[in-house]
Amino acid sequence: MEFDKPPLSFEQQLDRLIERGMRVTDRPRALAYLRHINYYRLGTYWWSFIGDHNTHQFKPDTSFESVLNLYVFDRELRLLLLDAIERVEVSLRTQWAYHVAKEGGSHAHLNKELFNAKDFAHDSFLDNLLSEVNRTSDRNIKKQAQKYQEATPAIWIISEVMSFGWLSRCYGNLKRRRIRMDIAQVYDLNEAVLASFLHHLTTARNICAHHARLWNRDFTFRMKLPHNGPDYLIQSLNAHSPRELYNTLVMLAFLLDKISPEHSWKSRLKALIDNHDIDTAPMGFPEHWQQLPMWQ
C-alpha cells in the first residue's frame, strides 16, 4: 500500500481534529501545543479517545484539554519512574561491585571465568568499558587511568561508568549463583526474579529516557514475578496483567522500601494519578489497588 497522506499545516491539523469531533475551546492555545508537540506523538494519546476507528471520530465530549491532560500525566509519570530507577540503579551498582570484588578482587570484572561464556560477550563488555572510561569527563576517573598501569580501573570505579544495560547483563550472567543470591538477598528477592526485573527495567528506562509513551504500553518482555517473599509484595502484584506498567511500579516501590525506607515515592505516584484524574485500568492497575498493602 502506497503512503499518500500529504503533510498538514498546524492550522489544518487542528481543523482535522475538530472535524473528527474533538472539542477545542481555545484555538490559539491548542495551536501553540501542536507547534511544539508532534501531531503523531499526541495521536498516541488521543487514540484511546476515538470511538470509531474506521472514521477516526472521537467519543462524545472529547476535548483537546483531556488529551493534553493525559499527555502531561505521562510526561510526569516518566520523570517519577526515572527518579525511582536512578535510586535502584545506584544501589545495584554498589552491590554488584561490592560482592563481585569480594569474590574476585579489585579487577574481578576482567576475569571472564566469573561470567557465563555462552550468554555473555566478555570481550564486548571490556571494549565497551574502555570506551566509556576513555570518553568520560570525570576528572577522578581520568586521574585513576593515568596513575595506574591497568587494563581498566577497579571494579568499584567502572561500575559507575558502565551502562545500565551492561550492569543488568553483568548481574544476570554471573556464573556463580551464590554471588547473584547474595546480591538479591539485599533486596529480599530471588536472584532469578531480580535478574528478570533488571532486564525489564532497562526497557522501561529507555522508554523514559527517549520520552516515549509509558501510559497504556504493553511491554514485549514479560518479567518474572515473585511467588515467594514478603506478603505485602506478593498480594499487591497483578498476575492478570503481566505486560502492563502496574507490576513495574509495584516492584520499584518494593525496592525503594528496601533502599530508602523513608521515601515519598508511593505517595507522589498516588497524588499524580489523583491530580490528573487518570483511569489506571489501561496500565494494568487492579480495581481498588489503593487498598492493596503496597499502597497503604
Structure description:
With about 300 residues, this protein is mainly alpha-helical. It contains 13 helices and 2 strands, in the order αααββαααααααααα. The chain has a two-stranded antiparallel sheet with strand order 1-2. Helix 4 (about 65-105) packs across helix 8. The chain is globular and about 65 Å long. The chain starts with 9 loop residues before the first helix and ends in a 20-residue tail after the last helix. About 25% of the residues are buried.
Radius of gyration from the CA trace?
A: 23 Å
Structural class: mainly alpha
Element string (H = helix, E = strand) = HHHEEHHHHHHHHHH
Sheet having the most strands: 2 strands, antiparallel
Total count of strands:
2
Contiguous uncertain segments of 5+ residues: none
Specify the number of helices.
13
Strand order of the largest sheet: 1-2
What's the shape?
A: globular
The separation of the N and C termini measures 52 Å
Helix content: 55-70%
Mean pLDDT score, rounded? 95
Can you tag this structure with a few keywords?
296 residues; mainly alpha; two-stranded antiparallel ribbon; 55% helix; 2 strands; globular; 13 helices
Chain-wise SSE layout:
Elements lengths: L9 H10 L7 H10 L2 H8 L3 E3 L4 E2 L5 H41 L17 H14 L3 H9 L7 H4 L5 H9 L4 H10 L4 H19 L21 H4 L11 H14 L5 H12 L20
Antiparallel strand pairs: 1-2
Helix pairs in contact: 1-2, 4-8, 4-9, 4-10, 4-12, 4-13, 8-10
Summarize, please.
55% of the residues lie in helices and 2% in strands. The chain has 13 helices and two strands. The protein is globular, with a radius of gyration of 23 Å.
